[in-house]
Amino acid sequence: MDTKEYIMPYGEKFYQYTAIDCVSKKRKLIGYSTKTAKNAGLFLDRVIREFPFRIKAIVTDNGSEFMREFDLACGINKIKHYWTTPDHPNQNAYVESSHRIDQKEFYDIRYIPDDIDGFNRALAKWEYEYNVIRPHGSIAFLSPENYLKSVRIKSSKVLPM
């Protein structure tokens, strides 16, 4: 999990909170106008509700948004919270890589609305494209949703002994 700062042409900042499953590549994206531990905790609640599996552990950097309320939310939900070594973003490579994709395939080429509601609508469309339509080489050129379906189908074929 991480945040990505987006600076509007007139200087206002929005923060994209990102969660990614390192196996399926499924992501959740939400924009906030502030980068706070409270918002990170609210974001974690959404991720828990929307991911189709139990989250056992989360890796974050040492940003202040991943302290206090966020760390408490992890504890309440029995999620292990691991922090990267300071100044080593490669230790959270999945989310960093996904942010590079966001920059190249979303921020650099699409219209981004200049209000937080419009920003979130644009992020939701991009999240849908990323999770449902876009093929990912690391999961046999499936979308994250199709990968998860294939895993569920395989596991449902296991017969009890």
TrEMBL record:
Pfam families: rve (PF00665)
Signal peptide (from-to): none
GO biological process: DNA integration
GO MF, one annotated term: nucleic acid binding
Domain of life per record: Bacteria
Domain (Integrase catalytic): residue spans on this chain: 1-152
UniProt feature coiled coil, ranges: none
Transmembrane segments: none
Identification of the protein by name: Integrase rve super family
Organism: Candidatus Termititenax dinenymphae
